[in-house]
Amino acid sequence: MTETTAATTPDTESATEAFVERLFGAVLGAQLVQAAYLGDRLGFYRALAEEALTPPELAARTGTAERYAREWLEHQAVAGVLTVDDATAAPDERRFRLPTGHAEALTDVLSPNHVLPLARMVAGMGQHMDALVDAYRSGGGVSWAQFGTDAREAQAAANRPLFLGALPREYFPSVPAIRDVLERGGRIADVGCGFGWSAIGLALAHSDVTVDGYDVDEPSIEAARRNAQEAGVADRVRFHCADAATADGRYDLVTAFECIHDMPAPVGVLDTMRRIAGPDGIVLVVDERVAERFHAPGDETEQLMYGWSITCCLPDGLAHTPSVGTGTVMRPDTLRRYAQEAGYADIEVLPIDDAFFRFYRLT
């Protein structure tokens, strides 16, 4: 009797071929992300959004080398990101265009379809792979400060459309208790405020509220202050490079947007939020809308959140000692446990339908 090993069965061969195709497609996707990173950082997309350009024109407009500009343009055309008027023209005479639909995703910073910051985050993390390998071996971490400008700017840019748009204008007013705070001009604390877009969005949408933003990352606070000035709300939105535990008085609403899962000691932060909210204030945590239980394989959102966790959020959390090491995939039961340890009775998931975020009221 002849044995057939698993490696030679038709089913195994088919599975191998399918996975090879998947991984090869991922390589093409990674190259597209790298090219998008270059297009973002060098200003190529913004220039092309204004008008179609030849390689010499793009290089002159952006202060870059013509030979690199030409190769990048040709790659983007081959990849279907750009169109070219006449592919048979001389290389330096080909005119490349950025289609309107693509321009929205690549250049419209207020559009919900602006996904370019995600590409910048992925490519930016790639600069720290050696440090991540060391962290995986040692059990240490790579801090937000080490990840640097790309991580800060990309995360802020990714959340900006939501924080200036649907969140303060649709999501929050749909919750009666929060709507009441906004309508009566309540006092709000934004914990882990980053570049300040959540605080600024609330102030722009509701003219009577005042917001104090707290973050321990100094470059983020400096950016938040600039953003508030440019938005014209600096008289009602103040940013503090400090732990929220230093806050004075009581707040009507205390929020933490997409940051509790990053914190090495979330219980202490939640306890602070409970204290500054007082007995009558609202405590709101907005974090990733991951599945309630682990299962495999997962959907695209679950894959995305695990991808952020293994390259950014978990390493940042473990860069501090001691750390609970939550990671991006903070499921409702995990937050419930943290909340109960911080003195809350329970958590309530609010009926706000968002593709990426879950809204928790801590009670």
Automatic annotation (TrEMBL):
It comes from the Bacteria. Its EC number is 2.1.1.222, 2.1.1.64. It holds the Pfam family WHD_Rv2258c. One of its GO terms (biological process) is methylation. GO terms for molecular function: 2-polyprenyl-6-hydroxyphenol methylase activity; 3-demethylubiquinol 3-O-methyltransferase activity. Residues 38-107 form the S-adenosylmethionine-dependent methyltransferase Rv2258c-like winged HTH domain. Keywords: Methyltransferase, Transferase. The keyword Transferase applies. Residues 184-295 form the Methyltransferase domain. SUPFAM superfamilies: S-adenosyl-L-methionine-dependent methyltransferases, Winged helix' DNA-binding domain. This is Class I SAM-dependent methyltransferase.
